[in-house]
Amino acid sequence: MKFIFADSLDYVDPAFDFIADRSPAERQPYWDDAYPHEILGYAPYDGVLVSRGIIGDHRVKGKYTSSQARRFHLVGARKFLRLDKPQFKDLDIFGDCGAFTYVQEERPPYSATEMAEFYDECGFTHGASVDHIIFDFDPAATGMAGGSDDAKARFDITLENADAFRREALAMDASFKPLGVVQGWSPASMAEAARRLVAMGYDYLALGGMVPLKSPEIKLCLEAIRDVIPSSTRLHILGFAKADDIDGFHGFDIASFDTTSPLIRAFKDAKQNYYLPGDGLALRYFTSIRIPQAIENPKLQRTVKKGIFRAEDLVAMESAALSALRAYDAGGADIDDVLQAILIYSAALVEEKSYAECRDSILLARLAVRYRETLMEKPWKQCGCPICATVGVEVIIFRGSNRNKRRGIHNLAIYHEHIERLDLKRAVHRPYDLSRSLCATKR
Amino acid sequence: MTYLAVCARQSDEHQVLTFAATAGDILRFATIDRIGRSAQGVLSGFQRPQVAAHIREIRDYLEKPNAVLPNPIVVAFIQGVTVEAREEGSARLQIDVSSGAPGLVVDGQQRLSALTELDRDFQVFVSALICRDEAELRRQFVLINNTKPLPKSLIYELLPSVDDLPPRLSRRSAAAEITARLNYENTALKGYIKQHTMPEGSIADTVVQKVVMESLSNGVMRELVRMPKGEDRCVKIVSNFFDAVKRVFPLDWHGHKPATSRLLHGAGIQALGDVMEVLAQRADARSIDDFEEGLACLKGRTAWTSGEWHFGDEVRRWNGLQNINRDVALLKHYLVGVVKADLRRRAKAAPAPLLDGLPDA
């Protein structure tokens, strides 16, 4: 099972100074910063996925600057992502349209021909057909029942595009592997889409629209699809937000999936920000310590504008929390003292009140419990990855892109190992496949 | 706290004095009064919040041993000070800090914030202004902070002659230098660029700088400028490209201004900048002939001076394109699309050279 990382310019500055809290003044982000595979010295994934929508153009606002987008088109994906080194030559580069960026449109902004040319010119190894996301998932609908008019229109658009896309790729003798994207409003409609894609000639399918679905719903879809396609047909899950549940998906013979979740969780999750291997085949999670920049954090700045806090006082609280945490890491402070210093600053952030006014608040109490666990365990000292080994306690601080993304990259490394351990287990026994083949012989 | 100050004769209503102090001392006798409202909605204070990036840039500068900061921090007082006049325009200024800092920082809060982060003994001038009341003080704040910044094009033109600039400006400076050379040396754009000192030029200097800056940061000039005589190569490639543009579109170029031809307009120049990149990077174009060959496919498919642009499902009159991001991007996408399709077609017609003709093959 290949873990493909969905990139959106997720790099960090290797020269970042954590004590002065800044990058060198002459830093040029794209050029001086390091992608995960550069800062770690190895790739914490089996491939990278780049969405056309993330790159952006005059129709879709992407995340790249227009000049970065131009460079991507000119030099191609591998060189742009700096995966053009011998040690990365086997990494896959997947492409898709980034259908979430145009969900509101009636039709996708890209034509099948345009996308095929894009994948081919930019040197992708795999390219997904032009899909259109379908909403209002109904797990119970059977056959082609259910589905709004809009859902059905999108179903047809996705399949028409897939057909044109495959023909186009063949005609241009494209150097990438075309993937047919499955979209549907129910497990049965997805199975029907998959069946038609296989009939068109696809032997690698990508399941779209999985982001909002829960794990059991995704399993229903996979089951329905697996029932109607040959076992040799490979499956990819696009935007697999439930990546932490991946061990529950073993029996479905997933060839690959892409996700950004281990990176994103580092700074978008309320609790589970830092990964470590847990008991058995599980992962263990820790909450990172929120110490945002007093004069850059919008919420804190608002309290200054409203006159609740003085900027100078916030800066003092911030610096007290930072130095207490560093002292604790170095063995020079007591856990209760460091927790106190952090909570004093958290009060301003969470409750917009002074600590004295809200020390008994429920939010602060909850935060204190999670922070205490992180502080007790010192997980950053339990990890030997190049990030934790280099920056130590800074990785656990929720503050600015250089700490948050480093924590995310550490998570990618832990997650990649996690996937590899799962694959090892799978090689020994595959319960689902066994029961499947038994059923087949009974029939 | 006592300072020996110099007085200036300015107004009968105010006293104005100046003296030197460190940032630490200034914050002992003055506070930065940020604007806010009380729970009853009463306005207080006047300063905006700190701007982190601005402070950082000032600090970077001040950390250099040769840094100077001749312009003063302006501190206003309505109470807590006594001025004792001495001979020849000097005075002894006494500030009473026993019940807090009586002064308010009217101008220079970002500089002051940067100075407090600085780990060196650095004195700045303080201009003390003693006002009648709070209203007068706020009036001074508005007046002092409402100055008109210098025009950008004047600053940009001065940049190349200034060294030791912060990186933000030094990148602009490199582009401004190449732009100025394009305008004054024997190039295709000689005399065409409107600069502060070349007001009769027609193409905006900021537009040419944009093209050059983009190329320097993410395009062909990034590599060229690092080679021997790098800057000459950069000037040459732009000049060669625009010579080719003139050859391919003679009637849309000669005798025209941005208002009469989109070829000399901000949108056209920026879009052509992208075409230059495609040809330089994909087809290795460097000479006038190389660029002319690559541009030829655009003949008959442009509407620089009349007619209509056909951008897929969108049709625009020739002058319906403005120098706004969306229009520039639309034109870029169209022109680059035509040029790339042509490159593909020509590569297919002669597949061998592309693979075998590479320099190290």
Report the order of strands and helices of chain B: EEHEEEHEEEEHEHHHEEHHHHHHEEHH
What is the approximate shape of chain A?
globular
Strand order, largest beta sheet of chain B: 3-9-6-10-2-1-8-7
Terminal residue distance of chain A:
29 Å
Largest interface: A-B, 30 and 34 residues
From the alpha carbons, calculate the radius of gyration of chain B and give it in angstroms: 29 Å
Q: Order of strands across the widest beta sheet of chain A?
A: 1-2-3-4-5-6-7-8
Q: How helical, in percent, are the residues of chain A?
A: 40-55%
* Tally of alpha and pi helices of chain A: 18
Number of strands of chain B: 14
Major beta-sheet overview of chain B: 8 strands, mixed
Distance linking N and C termini of chain B = 77 Å
Q: Can you walk me through this structure?
A:
The complex is a heterodimer of chains A (443) and B (361). Chain A has 18 helices and 12 strands. Chain A has an 8-stranded parallel beta barrel with strand order 1-2-3-4-5-6-7-8. In chain A, strands 9-10 form a two-stranded antiparallel sheet. In chain A, strands 11-12 form a two-stranded parallel sheet. In chain A, helix 9 (215-228) links the parallel strand 6 and strand 7 (234-237). Chain A is an alpha/beta fold and 443 residues long. Chain B is α+β, with helices and mostly antiparallel strands and 361 residues long. Chain B contains 14 helices and 14 strands. Chain B has an 8-stranded mixed beta sheet. A two-stranded antiparallel ribbon of chain B has the order 4-5. Chain B has a two-stranded parallel ribbon with strand order 11-12. In chain B, a hairpin with a 2-residue loop joins strand 13 (308-311) and strand 14. Classes of the chains: A alpha/beta (443), B alpha+beta (361). The A-B interface holds A 22, 25-28, 30-31, 57-58, 66-68, 70-71, 73-75, 117, 121, 293, 295-296, 301, 304-307, 310-312 and B 32, 34-38, 44-45, 49-50, 52, 55-57, 60, 166-167, 214, 217-219, 274, 277-278, 281-282, 326, 329-330, 332-333, 336, 340, 344. Chain B: Pfam families: DndB. Chain B: It comes from Sphingomonas qomolangmaensis. Chain B: This is DGQHR domain-containing protein. Chain A: This is tRNA-guanine(15) transglycosylase-like domain-containing protein.
